[in-house]
Amino acid sequence: MKFRTAYVVLVLLCSFSPISLAQDDSSRALVFIDHYALRVTIDEEEHQLRGDAQVRLHLMKDSVSRIRFDFGSAAVLIAVRDTSDKKIEAVEESNGPEKTGKEFSIALPDSLKRGDTLLLKLSYERSYDTLSTLASFIGEREIVLLPGDGDRWWPVLSPVTNPLRIQTAPVILETTLSSGFTVVSNRAADSSRSAGTKTTWIFAQSKPMPLTSCFQLCASKDFSKRVADGADSSTHISLYYDPARFSANLAGAVLHQLHDACAFYAVAANFHEQCSDLRVAMIGTDDGHATWYKRDGIIIGRNSSSYSAYDTSALLSSEMSKWVYELAGISGIAATDSSFWLSSGWSTYLAAEFFLQSAQSDPEMQRHIRLGLLSRTLEFYPAQSLGQGLNSQKNEQALFFNKGAYIFLMLEYVMGEGAFKAVVDSIVKNNRAAPLNVLSFQRLCEETYGSSLEWFFTEWVNRTGFPELVLSTEIIQTNRGNYSVKATIGQRGDVFTTPVDIVFSNKVRTITKRVFVTKQDQEFEFILPFLPTRGELDPNYYLLRWVPRLRLLAHARTSVSFRVFDRDLPNSEHEAAILLQLDPNNLTGWNNLALFSLGKSSVLKGELTKAEEYFRRASALEASDPTQLYSVLSLVRLGNVLEMEGKRDEAIELYKLSVTLAERRPAFYGIALFEAQKYLRQKFVSSDDFWYGEY
Asked: What dotted CATH number matches 337-460?
């Protein structure tokens, strides 16, 4: 089948004025870009980008012999030429610091001195032929081009040549596509024009911006557009989606939720500018997993079939409503590398605050939201502290994003909402660009709070693990008709210092007492005007702590992490067995995850009969959040095992059943739905890498 060839033409112009550099010669750039013009054609049929970059360089040192450019990882440099069209030698370098893609070293004439300029033309090609593995891709009906490291679609000076990364300028981007496309970029097009079968969009960026992040864009022939405007015209949101892949009814609900989130973030984190002209594009791929990218002004979601039907559960938490989470991160806070959790947890914190605010009139929903975040924080037993930095791949998601967010929430609890709001205002004002570190963050909190918070940062940032608290009470009626309550709080395992609420209640009254625990076992005495029939410790989950049920879930998730990250099957099986032993009757509703993990391990050991048994048991169990996905996914994996045994017809029936079950909650069962639909279309091919995978 032959498709008509279509092309995309892009022109990127950048200009500089000389700037002062640091005085330390060892860290000064060899050159900086004085002028940058990029002309690119994109062949939709061949999934290929062809570019010519005209770069004018300003030399910062005498006798610069070679300079280096970073290209995308799949780029091929065709030629480098000077103003007289003479070819200049260019060699691909095998290594280099901070290398993220291909790096080419270009020889310069010996006659060049400090202060001279040189105009170069770099011609190259870049392929994007695998939609499921590349962040950027080019297709006949869809295009996504991102500026990320290793995948960028234009050359930039490498860190070797430009250690200070001085590559900032006003830019103009001109994009020409066949007329069926709609283009969405990180800023609205300033103008457009049509000629024949082509349409051209022109984007002008007048203020300086980094070349490494320039424009992020996507385009589709299938986009529908919906718009929401604020009552005061300060908010303008455009949502682009393919109705065949994203429910039109869900799109309306998402747009409404984005509008509400913008309004909340505008107050909570001064998001007025970020929401003044926001574009959200949901563009489909064939990978089955929702992946998200953001820049100022744009959010791109590579959505799966899980959004093809309207499911209200997709709107209930930041785990499901990724657009709310990504919006919070569009204008985050800057942090030093050693304080990564401050920036990584910021978006999760703001998104959690949005959902907590939305549920302000529903205390039970607020508890559910906090418990969900607590559950995601305690994914498995953490092996490092926040203060140790990003050293463990296993800990990255749970520790830095979710625990980081919980640190913010706990500080709000400890300091009080008013004082912590002042801290947030200061961070938003001063640390959007200037990096924040933990020490300066601690000092800011202490100045606002009015006393030392050393104990808090020692306990929650620089320590590993979490506390587990147990409450016991004795009640005696006094001679005056009141009730003396002796409350004992015991800490299992490591001892933490922390405030905690004790809530006493009966059918009529409720009273909350906040205490400060510092010991393994600590007694507190209260006089209450009523007889409490119930005493609860931290019922609203303000404190980051182990809940007994979550310890069981952590065993199942640790089983997954041992298999996925360590390929350690004995420990993976051991952790799964612990959950099954501690909860033999599946009271938690989480045994399906342990059985699913054992099923995958059995396949890797060549024990297909055992794998069948585990997947069948997992699929038949009653399940509860957050492991419900694995019941339906176990049916799909059972079908995969049957296919390994040559039973394709039986497997197909399981895939059909999986689709039927998953479509009841498509946002929640999206991975299982995609997997089942995929294997209805094509035969399953087994590999160890597949079975070691998370799902």
From this structure: 1.10.390
